[in-house]
């Protein structure tokens, strides 16, 4: 593991733990968590709107309610976690193959298309 990656891991894990602790104990719907600037300016939800509340609900085991807050967040979470595991694991050649397949150019374009379609659907049907 490279030096910057190990530092990121050493400092990133406690920060991630603190954030998870905050989201577990403090409901973003009730406390002064950051609001979405896009929503404040336009009145429309962005693809990330509801993610803070979804994370809080997910940490309490309420998957259905979390999915209603932001279904894309719930679907993308395993993909993001897999990417983090892949980034910080030492799988050698297999790691390179998996990274290029799941996080390469084509995958990035597909993820962007999914996010844009979700955003358009969310704007049209107000969910």
Could you list some keywords that capture this structure?
127 residues, 75% helix, single chain, 7 helices, mainly alpha, globular
Could you characterize the architecture of this molecule?
- It is globular, with a radius of gyration of 17 Å.
- The protein has helices at 3-25, 37-42, 51-59, 63-69, 71-88, 93-103, 105-125.
- It has 7 helices and no strands.
- With 127 residues, the chain is mainly α.
- The longest helix is centred in the N-terminal third of the chain and has 23 residues, at 3-25.
- Helix content is 75%, strand content 0%.
Count of helix runs? 7
Structural class: mainly alpha
Low-confidence stretches: none
How would you spell out the order of helices and strands? Answer: HHHHHHH
- Span between N and C termini? 42 Å
Q: How many β-strand stretches?
A: 0
Instruction: Kindly report the average pLDDT value.
Output: 90
Binned strand content: under 5%
Largest sheet entry: none
- The rounded Rg comes to 17 Å
Assign a percent range to the helix content. over 70%
